[in-house]
Known about the structure:
It contains 14 helices and 12 strands. It has 341 residues and is of the alpha/beta class. Strands 4, 5, 6, 7, 8, 9, 10, 11 and 12 form a 9-stranded mixed sheet that branches. The radius of gyration is 19 Å and the shape is globular.
Amino acid sequence: xxxxxxxxxxxxxxxxxxxxxxxxxxxxxxxxxxxxxxxxxxxxxxxxxxxxxxxxxxxxxxxxxxxxxxxxxxxxxxxxxxxxxxxxxxxxxxxxxxxxxxxxxxxxxxxxxxxxxxxxxxxxxxxxxxxxxxxxxxxxxxxxxxxxxxxxxxxxxxxxxxxxxxxxxxxxxxxxxxxxxxxxxxxxxxxxxxxxxxxxxxxxxxxxxxxxxxxxxxxxxxxxxxxxxxxxxxxxxxxxxxxxxxxxxxxxxxxxxxxxxxxxxxxxxxxxxxxxxxxxxxxxxxxxxxxxxxxxxxxxxxxxxxxxxxxxxxxxxxxxxxxxxxxxxxxxxxxxxxxxx
Length: 341
């Protein structure tokens, strides 16, 4: 790769910008020079969702964190300017997040808080209402900025997806939930989901899927799912989890020689390069971090940018990855996906 200073900055494909604009989606990423001059931080970068709500595009994921790690990471993230916190019923850490938010003294309206319904037994209209009430209490809040289905539940609970979505839609109408989303959905799951009558009047605004150079939003399937493209066509914002993790593969993208060369050229860490790559592809990020140093490092990705050659080099890594492990894909996400995000 030639020195970064010798190449022009990257631009999104024209049709991507056109499709986003048609659905009322707009991205606000400050110019790197502005961030360097004014020391702007994560809250200055956001995407406007289809409902008009602004979602910070740099957040903190809390999957696989112990209760103590959750509390410390969330508290530090809020203190250094991160304003998007992501959790789930399955993570068992909502109480620690609520405590950290209270301790931080950051006004609630300045925090974008997202959680999920993860367990099949919580599906059904009244069960979902009861779960959300419990989550609000644990998180010490009266509303949620974003609420996801954490993958499609197995039978027989999948028959109750429509009921659960009706409950969530009612909660959105009364202001308890601001926006809705889905997570761990492949193309087949999304097509089926959008066929439900309950979804027609209250479509989701965000899809949260695994997103790294080897699995670019397609939920472990590289056989042409193209979930990011479907998101564009339906007015959904893609949010990526485990961007820095090799899960479920053994090789981490942070170890990739191409990523490391780009990082060297910018005098940045491979993690920062991967997160910046996602943002410039209009994918929001919620990297998990168990240490204060990593929380801070992950948030400091606004004061540099990748150019077209660098973006395409990283994006092309998906073509170098075997999809042999993904041949057995089913239309319903396996339960292990919930453990990944």
